[in-house]
Amino acid sequence: MAMVESIQRAIEYMEKNLTEDITIEDIARYANVSSFHFQRTFGLLTDTSVAEYLRRRRLTLAAQELLTTDNKIIDIAWKYGYDTPEAFTKAFRRQHGTSPTEVRRHEGKLQTYNRLVIQVTLEGAEPMKYSVVNKEAFTVAGKKRRFSCANDEQSREIPKFWQDVNAEGFTDKLFTLNNGAIKGVLGVCEGTTEEMKSEQVMDYWVATAIDGDIPEELEKLEIPASKWVVFEVHGPMPHAMQDTWKRIFSEWFPSNSYEHSGAPDFELYTDEDPSSPDLYSEIWIPIK
């Protein structure tokens, strides 16, 4: 429940400051998590990004103001964060399918997005298989790319990263090098350093656990000793993995006392056919 309450506090902060120039860091502070983890959790729970939620809500309130006041369109544009009437009209038309001028004349239909309220509903009829394990620190090695978390960019760009490494046979090489504490190829999310928080970026690794010498062409990352919750994932990619992530944040965390510790988490992939309905994968999340 603590997670749900923290997200709700952040939503209340956003709602009170829709006409202000607020940042992801400002919002995440009210949820008491890093901006990276807030954006990730928010997206999984709501199926939209923080930036998109703010944009939709601002344009919803702008439409209401056009209908109920005589305020100039240019003043409303400025109030909701648009530097020019042209930029405001373009965004307004994209959401509502009509222009501010037409709305002022009571023409056209509007598309309204209401304020979000996070609620716990009766879920979980389908069981989730997981274990809680303690593991000493271990080393992973592979390739990493840095992604912006602004406008949920990382969700669109990480799959392209996987396409690139698969096309060049890099993941096959990682399977042959894998001799460490975790068996498989890993997709590691790292977004916890102060630099990353301030710049709204994250590093994503395609890597594997290696015990011993690291090949020179690979970068390495130390995964700290942690208590982990390990979820089983059954089914083809990417839907099975995406569905499990959503259930973790919408069902498992709200009904358990654990919190994400803030250390890197990762997905574990086997060398089975990724399109197989019987594919087995895992999600590892560090907890406290």
Automatic annotation (TrEMBL):
<protein>
    <submittedName>
        <fullName>AraC family transcriptional regulator</fullName>
    </submittedName>
</protein>
<feature type="domain" description="HTH araC/xylS-type">
    <location>
        <begin position="8"/>
        <end position="106"/>
    </location>
</feature>
<dbReference type="InterPro" id="IPR020449">
    <property type="entry name" value="Tscrpt_reg_AraC-type_HTH"/>
</dbReference>
<keyword id="KW-0804">Transcription</keyword>
<dbReference type="InterPro" id="IPR018062">
    <property type="entry name" value="HTH_AraC-typ_CS"/>
</dbReference>
<dbReference type="InterPro" id="IPR010499">
    <property type="entry name" value="AraC_E-bd"/>
</dbReference>
<dbReference type="Pfam" id="PF12833">
    <property type="entry name" value="HTH_18"/>
</dbReference>
<dbReference type="InterPro" id="IPR011256">
    <property type="entry name" value="Reg_factor_effector_dom_sf"/>
</dbReference>
<keyword id="KW-0238">DNA-binding</keyword>
<dbReference type="InterPro" id="IPR050959">
    <property type="entry name" value="MarA-like"/>
</dbReference>
<dbReference type="InterPro" id="IPR018060">
    <property type="entry name" value="HTH_AraC"/>
</dbReference>
<dbReference type="Pfam" id="PF06445">
    <property type="entry name" value="GyrI-like"/>
</dbReference>
<keyword id="KW-0805">Transcription regulation</keyword>
<dbReference type="InterPro" id="IPR029442">
    <property type="entry name" value="GyrI-like"/>
</dbReference>
<dbReference type="InterPro" id="IPR009057">
    <property type="entry name" value="Homeodomain-like_sf"/>
</dbReference>
